[in-house]
Amino acid sequence: MAVPKKRTSKTKTRIRRSIWRDKANKTSLKAFSLAKSILTNRSRSFYYSINDESFNSSESVSTDKDEI
């Protein structure tokens, strides 16, 4: 016959939850820092190539309704 497990105390639950939140917060701060360094062109550990066509393609799209 199945026996229910003992209930976890609120303090243990809160400790586990705070550890989980701290990990998520640390990861988000790292991602934000990397994004800031890329935008300011100060990144030395992240290499990327800029595709000029992707930037100019939005300008060449016409939104005039008269042409349709």
UniProtKB/TrEMBL annotation:
InterPro entries: Ribosomal_bL32, Ribosomal_bL32_plant/cyanobact, Ribosomal_zn-bd. The keyword Nucleus does not apply. One of its GO terms (molecular function) is structural constituent of ribosome. Its main location: plastid. One of its GO terms (biological process) is translation. Keywords: Chloroplast, Plastid, Ribonucleoprotein, Ribosomal protein. The keyword Ribosomal protein applies. Belongs to the bacterial ribosomal protein bL32 family. This is Large ribosomal subunit protein bL32c. It comes from Apopellia endiviifolia.
